[in-house]
Design brief:
- This protein is an alpha+beta fold.
- Helices cover about 35% and strands about 20% of the residues.
- The chain has helices spanning about 5-40, 45-70, and strands at about 75-80, 85-90, 95-100, 110, 120, 120-125, 145, 155.
- A hairpin with a 2-residue loop joins β2 and β3 (about 95-100).
- α1 (about 5-40) runs antiparallel to α2 (about 45-70).
């Protein structure tokens, strides 16, 4: 499922993402542990059969956890480091907002084509500026403009890149 997130909707989803990511990482570690145990086991033995059954069960749990994360609409390019990406729009460009475990907020993004390095987000309060208005943010730092205090949803704007 393809979904675009505003910065606010991504932040709102972070606790759920963090919980599901923890479940996924735990299931992956359990699968890796079982795989390591199976290395020294002689094939065809009851122990090998039991480990194979347990690994199949845990592999299904890993797949279920991946599916749960995917249903949220986020991407997890590396389960081990836990980086999570939220598809979003900055100006007219589709980008990924990037969050890493331990961070209290989303602070960066990367483009999908060309230069994919992480770039900082600049958050400004207030109504979005018109797309053709000059931006006071440097062109390499898009401005994520939060909605006003009336609870309206956010939009994004950026200087020309």
């Amino acid at each position: 499922m393809f979904k675009l997130f505003t910065l606010e909707s991504a932040h709102h989803l972070l606790p759920t993402v963090e919980r599901r990511l923890g479940e996924l990482q735990g299931a992956v570690r359990e699968f890796e542990d079982l795989s390591a145990q199976a290395v020294g086991v002689r094939p065809g033995t009851p122990q090998a059969y039991a480990l194979a059954q347990e690994r199949a069960f845990v592999a299904r749990h890993v797949q279920d956890a991946k599916d749960e994360v995917r249903r949220l609409g986020v991407l997890v390019p590396d389960v081990r480091d836990g980086t999570v990406e939220f598809p979003s729009r900055v100006g007219g460009e589709i980008v990924h907002l990037v969050w890493r475990p331990g961070e209290s907020a989303i602070r960066s993004y990367h483009r999908l084509a060309g230069d994919e390095r992480l770039r900082p987000l600049v958050v400004r309060e207030g109504p979005p500026a018109p797309q053709d208005a000059p931006s006071d943010a440097p062109s390499s730092e898009p401005a994520i403009v939060s909605g006003g205090s009336d609870g309206t949803s956010s939009s994004t704007s950026a200087g020309s890149n």
